């Protein structure tokens, strides 16, 4: 019995001295989305990652979690028209990807001028698929963004 207590004590000591075991706020690695490199370039992404990793997380969240795809729209939704009528941020070109690319999130959301409402969802019809790209209202989006950044151990 004494031997078991000794072994348990040693095991406990090893575990609590292992880096990260008791640090509940240990940061997860911040990995920029590949779409950021396409948009910003390698040098700017690397510099932002070094100086302000929370900005990379905000961009990652915006690219991947600003919206969702569904055949059903929430009750407090405004239909905005076709996703293919949304122009790029610079105003030059409309969304130039296929219906399949949108349905599989293979486009860069933040390069386009999708609107966001303060209190209602905004839905954009995706061709003839029967699906919509649904943009979260500001209050829901920013709560999700905050939780996402904090999940990496970064105060936000």
At a glance:
The chain has helices spanning 2-17, 34-40, 42-51, 53-65, 99-103, 138-150, and strands at 67-70, 77-82, 121-126, 131-135.
General description of the model:
Residues 11-25 have low confidence and may be disordered. Helix content is 41%, strand content 13%. The longest helix has 16 residues, at 2-17. It has helices at residues 2-17, 34-40, 42-51, 53-65, 99-103, 138-150; strands at 67-70, 77-82, 121-126, 131-135. It is an alpha+beta fold and 156 residues long. Strand 2 (77-82), helix 5 and strand 3 form a beta-alpha-beta unit. It has a 4-stranded mixed β-sheet. The protein has a domain at 67-135. The chain is globular, with a radius of gyration of 22 Å.
What is the strand and helix layout of this fold?
Elements: H1 2-17, H2 34-40, H3 42-51, H4 53-65, E1 67-70, E2 77-82, H5 99-103, E3 121-126, E4 131-135, H6 138-150
Parallel strand pairs: 2-3
Antiparallel strand pairs: 1-4, 3-4
Helix pairs in contact: 2-3, 3-4, 4-6
